[in-house]
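Design a sequence for this backbone.
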């Protein structure tokens, strides 16, 4: 079959300029003809490890982000690529995709921390960082996150948005002590 023929040809040309193109063709056959998408992802990953500029492998993985069954595997490969190439806008997008599939609160906070760091430190997009940290505070009301949120609010001069975040926390948190604490913060901000 075509995939086997291409694999044999690949073995003959390992380490040569044709290697990426042969692996890409095998990946395409695996993905489109054999429904062996996991194998295709492995081929695309190998190509991008050698050649971060390979448009075909990159676009194939971006296309797989639309397929529910393979979204996370493709996202993990693209995360490695965008980290290595310092493509921070795309990295933030990929982390958002991973976040959308994550149900564990701790893992969500870790992903949001990475996204916020990218927005704040790499892209200097303080507005996006504010919203990222606000999402963290909805999950975890730790003092570090609250302090970071308040610092970003000060940079952005958006006290009213900070009040809105705190009001939302009060409405969704069932700990009476936390509700009092956030109500006090709201009252202080509104003075």
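Sequence:
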């Amino acid at each position: 079959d075509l995939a086997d023929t291409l694999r044999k040809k690949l073995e003959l040309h390992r380490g040569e300029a044709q290697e990426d193109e042969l692996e890409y063709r095998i990946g395409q056959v695996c993905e489109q003809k054999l429904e062996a998408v996991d194998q295709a992802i492995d081929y695309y990953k190998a190509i991008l490890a050698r050649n971060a500029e390979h448009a075909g492998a990159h676009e194939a993985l971006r296309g797989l982000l639309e397929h529910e069954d393979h979204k996370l595997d493709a996202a993990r490969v693209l995360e490695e690529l965008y980290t290595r190439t310092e493509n921070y806008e795309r990295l933030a997008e990929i982390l958002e995709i991973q976040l959308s599939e994550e149900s564990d609160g701790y893992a969500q906070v870790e992903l949001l921390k990475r996204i916020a760091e990218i927005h704040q430190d790499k892209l200097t997009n303080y507005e996006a960082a504010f919203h990222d940290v606000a999402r963290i505070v909805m999950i975890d009301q730790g003092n570090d996150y609250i302090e970071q949120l308040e610092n970003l609010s000060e940079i952005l001069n958006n006290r009213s948005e900070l009040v809105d975040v705190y009001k939302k926390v009060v409405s969704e948190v069932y700990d009476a002590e936390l509700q009092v604490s956030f109500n006090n913060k709201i009252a202080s901000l509104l003075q």
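Residues 105-122 form the longest helix (18 residues).
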